[in-house]
# Entry
Amino acid sequence: MKYSVGIIRGRFTRKTDPGQVSSFQALATELSGTVGLGNIAGVAVAITIGGPGAALWIIIFGFFAMTVKMAEATLGVKYRKVHADGTVSGGPMYYLRDGLAEIGRPKLGKFLAVFYAATTVIGVIGAGNLFQANQAASILVKAPVVRAASSTENRGSSVLCSQR
# Structure
């Protein structure tokens, strides 16, 4: 635990280390991508539809998901590319391609890397834009109607609110 806190605080970071971000910035970016739309809205929807029993399965799945996340982060660091200008590229496309090439499956790795990149683009459209637009529209439909009062009704108030 002390070592993890030391890494987050930057005790082991040197100015000469390759890359564009510090350990803390990388952690913050990773967590913001992980704890996002699916964890906030997804949990609320699951408990609403599935009841309290859904919370148990969320906890069980969360335990195994943390293990997968650790493996993903480790592979991402192992197979990242540091370019001559100091920029870093990495992620699932890289470790699928390079990792499977190391064990003698370069064609499968290249296919999975391209497939992952393409399906991620499609998924970003659905998860990012469509879901959020749906939630915003749902709130607006269920919101109270606000209309200006006419001069003949309720002279003392300027706005009336009525529920649909």
Remarks:
- Helices lie at 2-9, 23-34, 37-50, 53-78, 92-102, 106-142.
- Strands lie at 81-82, 88-89, 145-148, 159-162.
